[in-house]
Write a structure and sequence with these properties.
The protein is an alpha/beta fold and 344 residues long. It has 10 helices and 20 strands. α8 links the parallel β17 and β18. α4 packs across α9.
Length: 344
């Protein structure tokens, strides 16, 4: 079969790789659609991020959906022809964090398309992939393959919203409206947030934020003090979701977050210097949000029941053989949010 293999920054090749045999309790999925993630872009543009670097050729990708084309001899829960979203997360289930229900912190995690360990974990941008049954989640007939490929980033957003605690009746600020930030808006609204304000530096992404549920948007590139009207009474927002990974975005939100407000840092962008005195004086609760686990099944259920709509965030679908153009488009926030690859 063919797969998209990264060798070095800018060196992404379509290569033939073997299709593994299907074990007794495994499935072979014909990949139909895959989403280009921010981490895929980092590998493509820079060869990695932070201290994580590509050391050997690696198949990219971890946001995919497809159709089951083979089932293992011991599989009874799935049938040929069923359409599924595939979770890229394979925790060991044995370490102390898995045993505590913190599978996203597994000490022996295998996550598709990741250079965090060597040998690297090969990704899912391929025509066929063999998966464990627990990774496969059925898609309803009403959910398209492209929507199925959005399950993974939606899961990230759902986990971030869960980290914030109850949002019913809360006022929420989302800084950074790329795909994850926009999906946080979707998840926060579903969780009961009554007022959501979003900020970004791109008019295109802010337009998408409005389409998926933001009440107000502010282009901080054009209106640097756009949040100033929310500073009264020591701040107006109950919860901040920082999805840009930008230190200025995080620090700039401190004046508009009320005392004992909750900060959920979702975006990754390098180390930051924080005003600890402000965090102490306003008694902020700073929380990280990393990946997901059980939220993947929840994301599928929300899509299957039509309770959330991710279609406005899908900007384009291109053939995997046209990966250079697809990755260039995915990196351009002036005209694209989520770019998908077609593997048919």
């Amino acid at each position: 079969m063919e797969a998209l293999v990264i060798h070095a920054p800018g060196d992404l090749r379509v290569e033939n790789i073997p299709t593994p045999d299907v074990g007794a309790h495994q499935l072979r999925v014909r990949v139909r659609c895959g989403g280009i993630c921010g981490s895929d872009l980092h590998y493509y543009q820079h060869g990695g991020f932070g201290t994580i670097r590509i050391k050997e050729p690696m198949v990219l990708g971890h946001e995919v959906a497809g159709v089951i084309e083979a089932v293992g001899s011991g599989v009874t829960a799935f049938s040929l022809g069923e359409r599924v979203a595939v979770s890229p997360s394979q925790p060991c289930g044995l370490c102390r964090y898995c045993q505590q229900g913190l599978q996203n912190h597994c000490l022996d995690m295998r996550y598709y398309g990741s250079a965090m360990r060597t040998p690297h974990v090969q990704g899912a941008f391929r025509q066929e992939i063999v998966v464990e049954t627990h990774q496969a989640h059925r898609l309803a007939a009403s959910v398209s393959d492209s929507e199925g490929a959005m399950v993974e980033p939606l899961s990230v957003a759902l986990h971030a919203v869960r980290r914030a605690g109850p949002l019913l009746g809360k006022s929420v600020l989302v800084t950074g409206c790329g795909p994850i930030g926009a999906l946080v808006i979707v998840a926060a609204r579903r969780a009961g947030a009554t007022h959501i304000v979003a900020t970004d530096v791109s008019a295109y992404t802010l337009g998408k934020a409005l389409k998926v549920g933001a009440d107000e948007v502010i282009n901080v590139a054009e209106e640097a003090d756009g949040l100033s009207r929310f500073t009264d009474g020591k701040g107006q927002f109950d919860v901040l979701f920082e999805a840009s990974g930008n230190e200025r975005a995080l620090r700039g939100a401190f004046d508009v977050l009320r005392p004992r407000g909750i900060i959920v840092q979702v975006g990754l962008g390098g180390e930051m210097t924080l005003p600890i005195n402000t965090i102490v004086a306003k008694e902020f609760d700073l929380r990280g949000a990393f990946r997901f686990h059980e939220e993947f099944a929840t994301a599928v259920e929300l899509l299957n029941k039509g309770l959330v709509d991710v279609k406005p965030l899908i900007s384009a679908t291109l053939s995997y053989r046209d990966s250079a153009r697809a990755f260039a488009l995915a990196a351009d926030r002036s005209q694209a949010m989520k770019v998908l690859l077609n593997f048919d």
